Amino acid sequence: MTAGEVGNGGRIPLAGSRKLVILQSLDFVADLYWESAIMARSCEVCGKGPEMGNSVETRGKAKYLGGVGTKITGITRRKFKPNLQKVRVTLSNGTNKSMQVCTRCLRSGAVTKRVRVAPFRLPSGESKATSK
């Protein structure tokens, strides 16, 4: 008896009350893993994520400084990661949510940071100072 033949969602009953759950496909688990890994490294507002590029190593003295010129000694692949900050953001419906936001979205005002309420306020009926 295989998981495909069982009509109860892929579960095969074993002895007693224990049941064995058979994963029909590991692709689903892998997709969930990669989706969560990609989401963690990208801005939740603009979607900016990591990009691939080159790391260029040079040596020598530039010609305008009196040298014979710079030479490229190596090119290797590297990953440019966005500058993500974890901030508490006030959403349009008034609730607060923790989000991963890039610094460009923070500086441009694309998100509204949470406003903390003062921990203590004087009652409105009392005056600030009493004269004697």
Gyration radius (Cα, Å) is 29 Å
Helix content: 10-25%
CATH class placement of the domain at 43-108: Mainly Beta
Mean pLDDT: 76
Quickly give the structural class: alpha+beta
State the helix count: 2
Write up this protein:
- This protein is an alpha+beta fold and 132 residues long.
- The chain has a domain at 43-108: Single Sheet (putative 5-dehydro-2- deoxygluconokinase like fold), CATH 2.20.150.
- The chain has helices at residues 27-40, 103-108; strands at residues 11-13, 19-21, 51-59, 71-80, 84-90, 96-102.
- The strands form three sheets. The chain has a two-stranded antiparallel sheet with strand order 1-2.
- Strand 5 (84-90) and strand 6 form a beta hairpin.
